[in-house]
């Protein structure tokens, strides 16, 4: 009995071991069977291949491919051109653009649904976010988001230009651009600026410094022509890490030709309109101690009345006060940055005009206090003059005015002018 029991116990243990082995075989067989359904995740229907799963997933994903510019996280982005959204294999249905402060930026989806861009310029040094949605041919949606920062004032430059858009100016008016930061890559910046004339005249730029670039033709502009200035400086690197932000087209009209010649020795000014003399005016120019510059000068500003203080241009007395301080100089027109004007004079005796040069370097014409008499010579000349008209001074005992003293680049010969171009 006892031995039988022992035998029976051993038999049971053997069966258990065999079962365990068989069970292991079965488990292994199950794993091997599972290899036929590679990487099938929980819930995958029995007998479904991964290829079928991928195909099903692909059918549920939009084929539309959205691209947002600039790239997410970009710095120093353009305020004009960089922000845009495009899509392939689909059409845009919604695009929103907001600043970090929550302000909405207006934009427009193209008629074909393939692109979007803002309708106006962005602000500098601002973080913007773009969220875009598109659908493919099956109506499935795709989404894309991006955030970027526009160029800061510290990392950007602008060019302040003259003359103004839509203005009518005289034949001597150059296009003068003054940059608010020094330009080191002049070639790149000049490549982004074009000036052309309907007259077909060749127009060339000249760098007076790292902050000033002027454009003019060989001879004065043709009367009646139209000049176009195009600034395509957006994104142009003018100096290390400093980018342009302007994208603008400016046009101005050249009026009739008026060139007036001041003969300091004869003390007269001859006014020519379209080549014909229209008036000869007696003047009083700079005294022997304060001579007037010679050369071709361009009227850059007009003031019916203005203050002239000698201290601002270096004419001071022993106490440091201006040798003159006239608060209501009538019919004044600027000819140089350093303070040369052609203007009315009511404080001098009428006898000086045409006979004696008495000024501190300006050209004076007879006038009355208050600038209220249109019959005065100064009033007539003021009314007949445009910004950009030319006043030529000759026969003075002074030197020729520097080309960069005012808008007076005409005092530089054409070959020297062209040598200062980076075009």
What's the structural blueprint in terms of helices and strands?
Layout: H1 2-34, H2 50-59, E1 65-69, E2 84-88, E3 91-99, E4 107-109, E5 115-118, E6 127-135, E7 141-149, E8 156-157, E9 159-162, E10 168-169, E11 175-179, H3 186-191, E12 193-197, E13 204-209, E14 212-216, E15 226-232, E16 237-239, E17 242-244, E18 247-254, E19 258-263, E20 268-273, E21 276-282, E22 295-298, E23 301-309, E24 325-334, E25 341-345, E26 363-366, H4 377-384, E27 390-394, H5 414-419
Parallel strand pairs: 8-17, 10-18, 19-27, 25-26
Antiparallel strand pairs: 1-2, 2-5, 3-6, 4-5, 6-7, 9-11, 11-14, 12-15, 13-14, 15-18, 16-17, 19-20, 20-21, 22-27, 23-24, 24-25
GO molecular function: acyltransferase activity; peptidoglycan L,D-transpeptidase activity
Biased composition (Polar residues): 62-80
InterPro entries: Big_10, LD-transpeptidase, LD_TPept_cat_dom, Transpep_catalytic_dom
Task: Describe the model.
The chain is an alpha+beta fold and 423 residues long. The chain folds into 3 domains: 65-149, Immunoglobulin-like, CATH 2.60.40; 156-255, Immunoglobulin-like (Sandwich); 258-411, L,D-transpeptidase catalytic domain-like (Beta Barrel), CATH 2.40.440.10. It is 15% helix and 35% strand. It is built from 5 helices and 27 strands. The strands form 7 sheets. The protein has a 5-stranded mixed β-sheet, with no helix packed on it. Strand 19 and strand 20 form a beta hairpin. The model is unreliable at 1-44 (pLDDT under 50). The active site is at residues 343, 362. Pathway: Glycan biosynthesis; Cell wall biogenesis; peptidoglycan biosynthesis. Residues 35-80 are annotated as: Disordered. Keywords: Acyltransferase, Cell membrane, Cell shape, Cell wall biogenesis/degradation, Lipoprotein, Membrane, Palmitate, Peptidoglycan synthesis, Signal, Transferase. Residues 1-30 form the signal peptide.
